[in-house]
Amino acid sequence: QTEYENNVRQWIARRTLHATMLAAQHAEIEAKKTAYESKDPDGLVEYWSQVLFSSEYPEGFPKSFALDYVATTKTLVIEYGLPDIESLPHLKEFKYVAVRDELREIPVSEAWLNRTYESVLYQICLRTIHEIFQSDTLDTASLVIFNGWVNYVDKANGQEVNACVLSVQATKDEFLNLNLAQVDPKVCFRRHLSSSENI
Questions:
Q1: What Å distances lie between residue 110 and 37, 84, 143, CA to CA?
Q2: Taking the model in full, what pTM does it have?
Q3: SS3 for 17?
Q4: Are residues 146 and 154 in contact, defined by beta-carbon separation less than 8 angstroms?
Q5: Which of 38, 108, 178, 185 has the fewest CB atoms within 10 Å around its CB?
Q6: Cα-to-chain-centroid distance, residue 59
Q7: CB 36 within 8 A of CB 43
Q8: How do residues 101-146 score in pLDDT, each as one tens digit?
Q9: Do the beta carbons of residue 58 and residue 82 sit within 8 Å?
Q10: In terms of C-beta density within 10 A (0-12 exposed, 13-18 middle, 19 or more buried), how is residue 98 classed?
């Protein structure tokens, strides 16, 4: 056997493996598409999971959630893991101090950090609901219930806590009438949606 013949055999083997993998991927995509189009609850949950997983968030933000779909009421329940306050930047800037020839860290203010964190949580909630309704081309979700959970350490006792800090339900009609580009997330959450919070 020549080196050329060996190379050809290896190339054919790689091509065959690639074609097999590609066919399996296409079959999986077609199966998911069929499940979604047939409004199969598992197919819908998988579809919406992919929608939410494709959302881009800053590094360090969790991407964990559980979805439950109730076909009889066209309700999607989302249990969503929100970032804790430690996921936000704590440094405002670095300042060079010439007399000491050193960089000094300037932290953000506690008021800014708390205000920004609160806003981030409301934004994630609204964005998640928006992504579900916008992607629902088959009109299978009439109502979304979003429960936002945060894992954090209670500074008073040092214990880890997992708490639901935001809970909201929104119908598709009322939500798609919101102009999210113009709203204040907190005001929108409180005034236009059936909600509760513990931030």
A1: 48, 15, 36
A2: 0.75
A3: helix
A4: no
A5: 38
A6: 12
A7: yes
A8: 878 777 678 888 889 999 999 999 999 999 999 999 889 999 999 9
A9: no
A10: exposed
Q: How many CB atoms lie within 10 A of CB 82?
A: 26
CA torsion angle 191 168 65 37 (round to 10): -100
The first and second tokens of residue 22, run together, are: 């590609």
- CB-based contacts of 161: which residues, under 8 Å, 6+ apart? 151, 152, 153, 154
- 145 close to 129: Cβ distance less than 8 angstroms: no
Residue with tokens 């009439």: 142
SS3 assignment, position 77: strand
SS3 197: strand
Instruction: Locate the DSSP E strands across 119-159.
Output: 143-153
- In whole angstroms, what separates CA 64 from the centre of its chain? 7
Q: What pLDDT, in 10s, does the model give residues 7-56? A: 888 888 888 888 888 888 777 767 767 766 778 888 899 889 988 998 99
Structure-token match 């360090």, residue found: 60
- Which residue's entry shows tokens 């989302």? 78
| Residue 88: DSSP 8-state | S
CA angle 20, 21, 25 (to 5 degrees): 120
